[in-house]
Structure formats: structure tokens, C-alpha cells
Amino acid sequence: MSTKSLGSRVCVTGASGYLASWLIKQLLLSGYHVVGTVRDLGKQKKVEHLWKLEGAKERLQLVQADLMEENSFDNAIMGCKGVFHIASPVLKHISDPKLEVVEPAVQGTLNVLHSCRKNPALVRVVLTSSSSTIRVREDLDPNIPLDESSWSSLELCEKLQAWYPMSKTQAERAAWEYCKENGIHLVTVLPSFIIGPSLPPDLCSTASDVLGLLKGETEKFQWHGRMGYVHIDDVALCHILLFENEASHGRYLCSSTVMDNDDLVALLATRYPSLPIPKRFQKLDRPHYDLNIGKLSSLGFKFKSVEEMFDDCIASLVEQGHLKFK
């Protein structure tokens, strides 16, 4: 248990989600008092897994809050020393991406930060951004790994109809501007593609994509071409480290390994020969890039391997009944 966490009250937005659930697990294990926000407290099945976590009965509180409602996070955030903003708007059927994906991501982030500004106890906000906010660029140099100084091109995002990178980029930029104007200490985490065990019973889109790949599907993974991968546990622990480290500042790339699709499936097929993992993907004209994780590594942070993250992910899929193999 961290001595820095004793008695500390922190808020995690989007508590029932894939990453937020795992972060809450690690925060409780570290001795924190956690206030988690959910859109609807009436949906008990979505939060049952949280109450099973060690320390939940003693130190977890769930509060209803909606990203699109101004002031709705006031009660959850007031009195908290730290806020981990992970929640993203939940969208299923999209007809106007800019209106339904980009704008809610920006406004939702600003609504959370409005509530943060009202809290005199606040020490730091840790915002979950994405490595997609740095790598959608036309001027990628394959010989120079991307670092936190890079920003994705909004023009290129629009041209490619890459609405997720656009929403994450605009939301993070808006957060930096707001926090600078209002004296809020902000740190952002830029994870690559998160792999690992899932606590919620319903799989998120990333876990569903991995499940599809393990069952022989290529459609959803096809567009990756080349992608960074990181264990969900590393992402959660990175959030906590950056909250606790007084010297943390700015943006932090959080990624273990960058791999081409074909290299990834070759590794997985060798490790899990009984699964119908695709042999290869259609070649895409995607730029080669690597990620410079020196900033986070300089804090002594060490990442788990690709083998570990997929082993843990597959074990979780089997345990939850989503995957069967000999």
C-alpha cells in the first residue's frame, strides 16, 4: 500500500469501463478511497464486477454523472485530491461523426474540468488520451521515433475520416488550454492499443477486436497496419505513478511494443497454434513509425511484454466464456 495514498480520495470517470475498472482495482489495492462515476446507477449488471474488487466495500463509492450534463460531476469530484478522467461518450449508431463523436469528446472533457475547477482540494488531473493523438501525420520520418512533442494533423484525420484520433486530439488540446487558463495541474497519458484481461462482463470494442482476431477475423485489425500495444495493467499503474509523482508534467506516451500486423499474428500463431489466427493481412500503404517512451521510462517504469499482455487477455476471454480452444 502506497504511503502517499493513505486517506486519499480520488475520482475515476467512466468507472464501469474496461480501463477505468482496472484502474479502480489498482487504486483500491493501493489504499485509495475511490469515487467512480457511471452514467446510470440503475444498471446494476454494469457495475457488479466493481463491487467484487478487493477493498470495494470499504473504499469505493459510485456516483451518477453524465459527460454531456454540465455540473453533473460536481458531487463526485468535490473533496478529491485527484481526478482520473477516462470516460468517453458512448455511441452506437453514428450518422454525423463530427457532431456525435468529436464534439461530445471535447465537451465531456470540459464538463469534467469545470467541476475540477470548483474543487479546492484538487492536486492533479490525469487525463487518458491516446497515442493516436501523435501519429496521424503526413510527415512521419521512419528513422525518428514519435514522442510527446508530436500532434496528429486534424486536417489529415478529417481526410482519412479518422474520427477517433480527431476526437482524442481535440479533447486533449481543449483540456490543456482550459487547465492552463484555470491553473489546474494536468498530466495526460497516451496509451497505445490496450491489451489484457477484462473485468466488465461485456467486452469493449478493443477486446472485441482482439477476440475477432483470435477467431480468424481480419476486418477490424486490418486497418491497424502497424500499431503499438500495451498491457492494461501497465496503463493503470502509469496513471497512478503520474498522479503520485510530484514532478510529473505534460504528456506521457504509454506503449510497450510497436509491431506490424503480420509480425503480431506470426507471434500469436506460434504461441497459440490451435487458434485460427490469420496467417497474414492485406498489405496497406501505411507509414512505418516507432514510439519513444523515454519520458515514462525515465521514471523507472518498465513495461510487460507482448506475450504477457496477450496471454493475460486470452486467459480472461476463456475464463469469461468468450473463447474456447484446446
Q: What layout of secondary structure does this protein have?
A:
Layout: E1 9-12, H1 18-29, E2 33-38, H2 48-51, H3 56-59, E3 60-64, H4 74-77, E4 82-85, H5 97-117, E5 124-128, H6 132-135, H7 154-160, H8 163-182, E6 186-191, E7 193-195, H9 205-214, H10 219-222, E8 226-231, H11 232-244, E9 250-254, E10 257-260, H12 261-271, H13 294-297, H14 306-319
Helix pairs in contact: 1-11, 5-8, 7-8
The strand count comes to 10
Helical content, roughly?
40-55%
| Mass-distribution shape | globular
Q: Which CATH architecture is right?
A: 3-Layer(aba) Sandwich
Q: Please give the count of helices.
A: 14
Broad structural category: alpha/beta
Mean pLDDT: 91
Report the sheet-strand fraction: 5-15%
Q: What fold name stands as the CATH topology?
A: Rossmann fold
Tell me which oligomeric state these chains represent: single chain
* Stretches with pLDDT under 50, minimum 5 residues: none
Main-sheet strand order equals: 3-2-1-4-5-6-9
Kindly provide the radius of gyration, computed on alpha-carbon positions and rounded to a whole number of angstroms.
19 Å
CATH superfamily: NAD(P)-binding Rossmann-like Domain
Separation, N- and C-terminal Cα atoms: 39 Å
Query: What is the element string, with H for helices and E for strands?
Result: EHEHHEHEHEHHHEEHHEHEEHHH
Main pleated-sheet profile: 7 strands, parallel
CATH class: Alpha Beta
**Count of domain modules:** 1
Describe this protein's structure:
With 326 residues, the protein is an alpha/beta fold. The protein has one domain (9-196, 229-257, 290-303): Rossmann fold (3-Layer(aba) Sandwich), CATH 3.40.50.720. It is 40% helix and 15% strand. The protein is built from 14 helices and ten strands. It has helices spanning 18-29, 48-51, 56-59, 74-77, 97-117, 132-135, 154-160, 163-182, 205-214, 219-222, 232-244, 261-271, 294-297, 306-319; strands at residues 9-12, 33-38, 60-64, 82-85, 124-128, 186-191, 193-195, 226-231, 250-254, 257-260. The strands form two sheets. It has a seven-stranded parallel beta sheet, with helices on both faces. It has a three-stranded mixed beta sheet with strand order 7-8-10. Helix 1 links the parallel strand 1 (9-12) and strand 2. The protein is globular.
